[in-house]
Amino acid sequence: MPTVSYREALNQAMAEEMEGDPNVFLMGEEVGYYNGAYKVSQGLLARFGEKRVIDTPIAEGGFVGVGIGAAMVGLRPIIELMTWNFSLVAADQIINNAAKIRQMSGGQFTLPVVFRGPGGSAHQLAAQHSQSTEAFWTHVPGLKVVMPSTPKDAKGLLKSCIRDNNPIVFIEGEVLYGDQGEIPEGEYTIPIGVGEIKRVGTDVTIIGWSKMAKVALETATLLAEQGISAEVVDPRTLRPLDEELIVSSVKKTGRCVILEEGWPYNGVGAEIAYRVARLCFDDLDHPVERLTGNDLPMPYNRKLEHHCVPDAERAAELVRKVLYLD
Amino acid sequence: MAQILDMPRLSDTMKEGVLRKWHKKEGDKLAPGDVLAEVDTDKATMDFETFDAGVLLKRLIGDGDAVPVGSPVAIVGKVGEDITAILAEAAARKGGGAAGAAKDNHAAAKPVAAPVAKPAVAAVAKAAPAQRAVAMAAPATNGKVLASPLARKLATDLGVDLRGITGTGPGGRIVERDVKTASEGGATAAPVAAVAALAPAPVADVPRADARLPSPLVPDRRNEQRPASWDVPGQDQTVPLSLMRKTIARRLVESKTQLPHFYLTADADMDAAMAFREQVKEVHGAKLSVNDLIIKAAALALRRVPEANASFTDEAIIRHARIDIGMAVAVEDGLLTPVIRSADVKTLGQIAAEAQDLAKRARDRKLKPEDMTGSTFSISNLGMLGIKDFAAIINPPEAAILAVGTVRKEPVVRNDQIVIGQRISLTLSCDHRVVDGALGAKLLGAIIAILERPMTLAF
Q1: B interface with A, Cβ–Cβ below 8 Å
Q2: Vertex B90: Cα angle to B86 and B92 (nearest 5)
Q3: Residue B303 CB coordination number (10 Å)
Q4: Of B413, B416, B444, the residue nearest B430 (C-alpha)
Q5: Contact of B434 with B394, CB cutoff 8 Å
Q6: Bridge partners, A177 (sequence order)
Q7: Which fold has domain B3-132?
Q8: Are strands A76-80 and A53-55 parallel, antiparallel or unpaired?
Q9: 3-state DSSP: chain B helix, strand, coil percent, rounded to 5?
Q10: Is residue A129 among the annotated active site residues?
């Protein structure tokens, strides 16, 4: 199996789908001549030309709306947001148009559009450029929200998203672009709405997506040294959520810890915790616990920033708590 | 901030506790789980454990003092704390026994010790141990068992009674590992070992067919000092009421005055049952008492007549899913009724072993409250004391109790011949609100039918 980076995997997914379907095109800031702010669209302009790889002005509200209109008339746009922080000026387009047109037109229009770009904090990008926006988007009926954590998942899921007839929020991990990982040979897709057990364990279920799936795996490694067997579940898609996978894991382990990079209040983890409490009530030995980003705008200071992002040490401490070990 | 510790409710029926012995002195450091004192409840001597770390600042009662549940017993807090205010509060709460007793439910339900010690500096989200709810009455707070849902499910699956488990989670919560430990340690290993070493049980003893009043009741007076003159009047003795005696008095007066009792008596032919006992002894070397046979027979009969395995409440009759048989055991200065859980599904060997263990622990005052609560039907046996028949008082909230007499040899007519047979008299006392005459007769008939076909008991 070839080993590629997360960014290369995304690049392959777009190239393959553009190769296979002339209606697929990529549009966004710096996606063409600059080859992408994060080099995800490297080489695509040279390969597919200016009609299908389009540089836009710095005007998210405009080009996101253009993408929605293009999807309504039969094209399959991929709209790159330089980061999801910038999507907020296009929130009206995404929430009021993309998420609603299919239903409000009685199914006359479908919206095969993918909005993609990096999310979450990176390194000292401060309050406005370090946000995790998945809680906003998962709140909205009509949007699918996908957040892969590995190169394999990134490629397989992006291909499924480009082929899907609904508007999709595809949030990449800003600090994951350089991660290397094996991907299957040749053509493959991963279905939307299907999670994966990234590590099998028996004592506790740790749920994390995107960057937090990685932190969950680090946590499991730390815990293994202490004789605790943690199962890591990566939902991969946050809406629709693979409830069945989460429930079967928690029913097995009896304990659940959720890691989330975003803010705690109304976070995605809060929804997952509610579902686990409801569906696994008789199987829980301890209330579901969450480790989240701190409830404040991200500080610029490096040490403070580090303190605001969940890490394996604190996650392991929380796991010991749900196991009644401390 | 200092807090008051109250007399905990350590058994379902406990109204007051006697502080038998302090284990901690004023000024001693306390860690969660430390035994603060021993407390005599109405049924047993229990450890009074502390749930919070701190220092014992003041003992409010002394060794031997009896106080109602929920009244102040001690003050704990930090070294050197000013406790004048809290002392006054404790004194105020202590005032008036009647008021204290009336309030005791309230006191046990609410963590009187107030939402304790909030460390001003470390106001972190992490719950400091001291902030945990003060759940004094071990695993059961006011009758409610604190257990995680998983622990509850596991206990049901394993047939473990949560009331018998001490929780190790926060506030005494019973968690998965506690149930696992209990099921590994207590339930499985003990009965098997005990069957092998089955010695004659003194209380549920094997009555011989020719039982006479046992010798201790007919004292040997040959060497007794005779009074110089028969005219000397003896001194009346005042025996203080023990907590157990008070409980017996209260509960039995309640039962006999509030429950409409009626009584059904019938004899069972015990020839086959006595032969069956002999066979079990020959084949397994295990001695079964007549009482063991009757416990199992009654449990199986209740399975056939579930309407009698019930309790009356003002709203409805509760039919119990489990058949838990209470077994009256005479102890020094009273009696206790330990419970054999799910007697209908246990083997005779298990019942014999449990009955023997419970009787021994009852006499040693080692029963825990949970060993004595929740029975759905009781049996009182005076056969070993040579009693032919008697009527027992129902043990509420049960609906019936079986009084068992001695197995006696007597002439019986069999195939028109007078032969020597063995008979036992059984008297069922019924609560007429739940069990009508015909239903009671059906239950007693079922018990007798099973006893007369003892192979039924082997299943």
Answers
A1: 148-153, 168-170, 175-177
A2: 115
A3: 14
A4: B444
A5: no
A6: none
A7: OB fold (Dihydrolipoamide Acetyltransferase, E2P) (2.40.50)
A8: unpaired
A9: 35, 25, 45
A10: yes
Tokens 């992002």 belong to: A309
Domain end residue (candidates: A182, A215, A236)? A182
Residue A83, domain extent: 3-182
Smallest Cα distance from A251 to chain B, Å: 9
Position of tokens 């257990």?
B147
Give span(s): CATH 3.30.559.10, chain B: 243-458
CATH topology classification for B146-196:
Dihydrolipoamide Transferase (4.10.320)
- Tens of pLDDT, residues A60-107: 999 999 999 999 999 999 999 999 999 999 999 999 999 999 999 999
Please state whether beta strands B35-40 and B16-22 pair in parallel, antiparallel, or not at all (unpaired): antiparallel
Cβ within 8 Å, pair B149-A286: no
Q: How far is CA A51 from CA A28, A58, A230, A261, B362, in A?
A: 13, 19, 49, 37, 91
Closest CA to B377 of B457, B297, B456: B297
CA A34 to chain B, closest CA, distance in angstroms equals 47
pLDDT tens-digit series, residues B399-458: 999 999 999 999 998 889 999 999 999 999 999 999 999 999 999 999 999 999 999 898
Q: Is the pTM of this model over 0.80?
A: no
Q: Which tokens hold the place of A207?
A: 């749920």
Report the residue from A283, A286, A324 with minimal CB separation from B153.
A283
